Automatic annotation (TrEMBL):
It is found in: Cytoplasm. This is Phosphate-specific transport system accessory protein PhoU. It comes from Brevibacterium picturae. The keyword Cytoplasm applies. It holds the Pfam family PhoU.
Length: 220
C-alpha cells in the first residue's frame, strides 16, 4: 500500500510539471500575440486554456481521493495539500495568460498597447516568461535555489506594474482614449498577478522541502 501511495505522490508531482509546461507555453504565445497583434495566435491561447483547466481538475480529483483513501499524515499530508494549492495557482496563471490573449482579441484590429507603452509591456512579457520558466524548472527539480530567482523576477514585475501607473499619471488629460487606459491597466495587472501566483507556487515548494512556514508568513 505504501508503494502505491508513493507512486501516486510521484504522479501528482508529474502532473504539476505538466501544468507548468502548459502555462509557460501559454504566456509565451500570449506575449507574442500581444506584441504582434496576432488574432489567430490569441485565439490559440484562449482555446488551449481549457487543457490547463482539465489538468487541474484531474489533479485535484486524484488528490482528493488520496486524502480520502490513504489518510496521509505529516510530510505526506503536506505534499498532497501543497499539490492542491499549487495546481490552483498554476491554473490561475493559465487564466491570466488567456486574459492577455483576450485583450488582443477585444481590440483587434487595433493594438491593445499604445506605442509609447510598448517597451514596458515587452519587458513585462519577458519577465512573465522568465518567471514561468523558473517555476517549471522548480517543479521539475525541486530545490531552494530557485526560490530567490522567482522572488526577484516577481519584484521586476511589481516595479513594471507601478511604472505603468506612473506613466499614466504623467499623461496629459485626454491624451489617451479611455479604452487605452483600461487596456494598459488590465494588462499590467494580469502580468503582476501572474508573478504573484508563481511566487505562491515557490512558497509551497519551499514549505514542502523545509516544513517551515515562517518564510512564507514573512512574505505576506
Amino acid at each position: 500500500m505504501r508503494e502505491v501511495f508513493r507512486n501516486e505522490l510521484d504522479e501528482l508531482a508529474t502532473q504539476l510539471v505538466d501544468m507548468s509546461i502548459k502555462v509557460h507555453e501559454a504566456v509565451r504565445l500570449a506575449n507574442q500575440a500581444l506584441r504582434s497583434n496576432d488574432l489567430e495566435l490569441a485565439e490559440k491561447v484562449i482555446e488551449a486554456d481549457a487543457a490547463i483547466d482539465h489538468m487541474q481538475y484531474a489533479l485535484d480529483q486524484q488528490a482528493a481521493e488520496m486524502l480520502a483513501l490513504q489518510a496521509p499524515v505529516a510530510a505526506d499530508l503536506r505534499a498532497v495539500i501543497g499539490s492542491l494549492r499549487m495546481s490552483a495557482s498554476l491554473e490561475r496563471m493559465g487564466d491570466l495568460a488567456r486574459h492577455i490573449a483576450q485583450q488582443v482579441r477585444i481590440r483587434y484590429p487595433e493594438s491593445a498597447i499604445p506605442d509609447h507603452f510598448a517597451d514596458t509591456f515587452t519587458r513585462m512579457g519577458e519577465s512573465g516568461e522568465k518567471i514561468a520558466e523558473a517555476t517549471e524548472n522548480l517543479l521539475s527539480n525541486p530545490g531552494l535555489t530557485a526560490v530567490p530567482t522567482i522572488n526577484a523576477i516577481d519584484e521586476e514585475l511589481d516595479e513594471l506594474h507601478l511604472s505603468v501607473f506612473a506613466k499614466l499619471a504623467e499623461e496629459p488629460a485626454g491624451a489617451l482614449a479611455p479604452r487605452h487606459i483600461a487596456d494598459v491597466t488590465l494588462l499590467s495587472r494580469y502580468y503582476e498577478r501572474f508573478g504573484d501566483h508563481a511566487v505562491s507556487v515557490s512558497q509551497k515548494v519551499e514549505y514542502l522541502l523545509t516544513g517551515n512556514w515562517e518564510p512564507y508568513l514573512s512574505k505576506k
